[in-house]
């Protein structure tokens, strides 16, 4: 179900380094750090690799990343039944950014000893007004999933249609 990627991540990250999202600040202030957890994912995809899915470098996509407790995803990494993510985020990315890889920060509003992250891109016009918590990948989505280790994971998106 999960693909292990042996390459090291491009930049080491610590929970105290870099910018903090507004949600992380609000969650820590309102809930306290014991009531939440944070993850960071390195997401990559060579969206020009498949000739029938090639995209120009400037093409924009909606990237969705969600976290789940282990055991609620099927063998392909898709949430089963009415499984609800414990955290989610979304953003616009270009094909060029995906080829280079992007860091995505995720705040779960409940503390979790273990988490599995899934990520996918949507090829149609991205709508960031749509809630990422309710989003589900389509049957032909470029998708990846991986368990979180030491608050980070690497997700290499692959087209499920092939």
Low-confidence stretches: 1-6, 11-20
> How many structurally independent domains?
1
Tell the overall outline.
globular
Into which percent range does the helicity of residues fall? under 10%
Mean pLDDT: 77
Q: Sheet with the most strands?
A: 5 strands, antiparallel
Number of strands: 8
| Structural class by sheet pairing and helices | mainly beta
**The CATH architecture:** Sandwich
Describe the structure in your own words:
The chain has helices at residues 22-31, 95-100, and strands at 37-44, 60-68, 87-94, 102-108, 116-122, 142-147, 152-156, 158-159. It has 162 residues and is mainly beta. The chain has a single domain, classed as Immunoglobulin-like, CATH 2.60.40. It starts with 21 loop residues before the first helix and ends with a strand.
Note the main attributes of this structure:
mainly beta, Immunoglobulin-like, 5-stranded antiparallel beta sheet, 8 strands, 10% helix, disordered N terminus
Brief summary of the model shown:
This protein has 162 residues and is mainly β. It is 10% helix and 32% strand. It has a single domain (37-159), classed as Sandwich (Immunoglobulin-like), CATH 2.60.40.
Write the SSE topology:
Layout: H1 22-31, E1 37-44, E2 60-68, E3 87-94, H2 95-100, E4 102-108, E5 116-122, E6 142-147, E7 152-156, E8 158-159
Parallel strand pairs: 1-7
Antiparallel strand pairs: 1-4, 2-3, 2-5, 5-6, 6-8
């Amino acid at each position: 179900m999960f693909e292990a990627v042996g390459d090291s991540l491009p930049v080491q990250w610590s929970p105290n380094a870099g910018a903090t999202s507004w949600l992380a600040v609000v969650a820590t202030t309102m809930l306290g750090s014991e009531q939440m957890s944070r993850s960071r994912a390195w997401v990559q995809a060579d969206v020009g690799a498949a000739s029938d899915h090639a995209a120009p470098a400037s093409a924009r996509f909606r990237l969705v990343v969600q976290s789940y407790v282990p055991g609620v995803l099927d063998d392909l990494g898709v949430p089963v039944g009415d499984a609800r993510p414990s955290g989610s985020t979304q953003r616009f990315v270009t094909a060029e950014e995906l080829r280079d890889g992007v860091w995505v920060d995720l705040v779960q509003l409940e503390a979790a000893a273990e988490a599995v992250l899934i990520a996918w891109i949507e090829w149609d016009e991205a709508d960031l007004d749509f809630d990422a918590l309710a989003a589900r990948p389509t049957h032909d989505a470029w998708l990846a999933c991986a368990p979180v280790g030491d608050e980070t994971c690497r997700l290499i998106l692959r087209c499920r249609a092939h």
